[in-house]
Amino acid sequence: MSLYDEEAKRNRKQSTFVPLSQEEKDEIQQLRGKHSVVIKPSDKGKGFVLLPSTQYDEKAEAMLDQEADYEKVAMTVDKLDEETRRFVDTHLKNKLPEKLEKAIKPRHSRMPRFYGLPKDHKAGLPLRPVVSSCDSPTSNLSLIVERILNQLLMFVPAHLDSTEACIEDIKRHRQVPDGCIIASFDVVGLYSNIPIDESISAAITKLEQHKDDVDMLGLTVADVQLMLQYVLSNNYFEFNSKQYRQKRGIAMGNHLAPPLAILFMDALEQKALSTATVKPDLYKRYIDDCILLWRHGWKGLTALLDHFNGQHTTIKFTMEHSVNETQSVNFLDLALSVRGNSIEWELYVKPSHSGVHLSYESCLPWSCKRAVATNQFSRAIRNSSTPEAEDRSMSIIEELLERNDYPRTEINAARRAAKGKRQDTHPSQQQQRDSKRRHNQFKSVIKLPFINDSLAARVSRRVRKFSPHVRVVFVSGPSLKDMLVRSSSAVRVCPREKQRSEVKRGRGRPMECRACDASMVDSQCLVKGVVYCMSCTLCAELYVGETERPVRDRFAEHYREARAMVAKAPWGFHYRTQHRESLKSSNFLPFHQAKILGREASLPSRKLLEAIEIRKRKPAVNCDDGWRLID
Phi and psi at residue 128, in whole multiples of 5°? Predict the structure, then answer.
């Protein structure tokens, strides 16, 4: 690993990629820190939308003021954490593997956050409501239920999981009679209009039918029903420091939203199709988009649409259909049309598509760029039914790659590669097993910043020589989205600062924050998954550490260990051996000048960064050097 640590700077000078200057980084940080402006990614494209915060708040609060959908509540994340732990202990104890049961109990959670994605392709710039549930009290509980429900989707007759599955179904119905119409039904606002009780009922009914065909993880159908009811009745979130509960529908961003939507729609469409006087030759659905083949005339098709719209008070459909051979129906990334007595299809790209893809100038390995280009051409081949359609689809991809600065030589090479692997579009079961076996051989994954291809190849060889079970993944630096976009527009505030205002009103007692006392600023005490350093207040010796918890929790632990002079803890041992008489004052803070050195969500990446920083800074307070680095 010293190879990477020592040669990265020298190799960076040889790189063709131009990093951001410090001035540019400062400007981005200033823009991110402007609370008068909200920056969000576009709903349909890859661009950004900048809105005055007042305008953004007005649009969001207008949605949240709809009493039929939302209500204001008084709920704290600590209370929800406690209730969720109590639910697990009461209903799931000893039913799941011990590690899994422990994992679903929330720790250091945050309240889900509401935000809106601007629909810049529509007049008035409306927002699409999304709730970020990452690290929420019920997120791990949702993941368990999602894993069970996802296994049921194979038993939904109309369900499509990809464009490839759609093409295979169409191939079986490709020859059609005269007058056949291709139509698509689109559900209006599916997630926000799903009735929760009925969606749970649909999921449990399907689970009862197939409980012997899926892995229940040791749970019963009644357990899953209780978990669904708990998660969906506790769908709390916050916006601008106000707490809300969603009363109707399921928030986009909830892990359970896709499988529950699919299972609810399955129950609804089974009822609709079974009672329809005339049925379509083909009916398939990708979540809320349906495709139909219809040969019973225009009046019969409108009657079917009316029949579907009469099935439920909150679920309504709109329709798009083909009129003649010159008009196509767009479904997923396919343009479908009837030519004579045959269905044809080719690649479709929405007009709202930004055209932004992985740039050839991006700081990523050449192999990634080649793979992206080749896969895009393979997609064009796969989504084309005739040679003429394939040529048109390939032209779309060529134009897309040119707009993203791919040189003509790379485009031609990727096109040839895609045509060469045309026969491998659908890998055999043995190929799938071999691919899975190769993937499973890696027990650890290490992420490193990409500098150039030469250095990446050398590091990969060294790591493989050290251990065949470690995989190295090279990543680019943070994107503009990473640097600018936040799910919450509210300013994060240390709990101590919030408590101070309550104490002034005579409520509660003062709260301590050892991280803020040790020079953490801008509410960095709330950040999780970091590598940090701090120095001794008396002798300035350094300590480097990592934590998955909020920084303030880890610093409180360091403080207690130092005050108690715990021999097995770094700060306790340091003060026990070096400054034994210095902790008599109750106001004395054992460490200061703390700062965050980096953020990493995964434990291996965090441990690796910690080991690198220990080697670089040589901290005397640490009891060990962390992970052993490859020399």
Answer: -95, 120
Residue 397: CA atoms inside 13 Å, Cβ hemisphere, count? Answer: 28
| C-alpha dist (Å) from residue 51 to 15, 124, 130, 239 | 36, 12, 17, 17
Residue 304 belongs to a domain = no
pLDDT given for residue 463 in this prediction: 82
* Cα(459)–Cα(264) distance, integer angstroms: 50
CB neighbourhood size of 35 (10 A): 10
User: Whole-prediction pTM value?
Assistant: 0.83
In a domain, 315, yes or no: no
Examine the domain organization and report whether 608 and 476 are in the same domain: no
**Token pair listed for 522:** 């801008």
Beta bridge partner(s), residue 475? 449
Three-state secondary-structure class, residue 462: helix
**Residues 454, 561 within the same domain:** no
Residue stretches of the chain with pLDDT short of 50: 1-3, 13, 424-425
What integer pLDDT is reported at residue 526 of this predicted model? 86
Q: Which of 260, 282, 311 is the last residue of a domain?
A: 260
Q: Indicate whether 185 and 251 sit together in one domain.
A: yes
Backbone angles phi, psi at 109, to 5 degrees: -75, 170
Q: What DSSP string runs through 38-94? A: EEEE-SSSSSEEEEEHHHHHHHHHHHHT-TTTEEEE---HHHHHHHHHHHHHHHTTT
Question: Does residue 180 form part of some domain?
Answer: yes
**Rounded-to-10 torsion of CA 372, 373, 379, 384:** 170
Q: Pick the closest to residue 112 from 259, 232, 288, 248 (CA basis).
A: 232
What gap in Å lies between CA 495 and CA 497, rounded to an integer? 5
Domain count, the chain: 3
Dihedral through CA 34, CA 40, CA 46, CA 49, nearest 10?
A: -70
Map tokens 């329709």 to a residue: 319
Partnered with residue 51 across adjacent β-strands are 38
The predicted pLDDT at position 3 comes to 47
Write out the residue range of the structural domain in which residue 67 sits: 32-260
| Residue at 229 is within a domain | yes
Placement of tokens 């190769």 in the chain: 438
d(CA 199, CA 232): 10
Q: How far apart are CA 108 and CA 90, in angstroms?
A: 21
Q: Cβ(320)–Cβ(183) under 8 Å?
A: yes
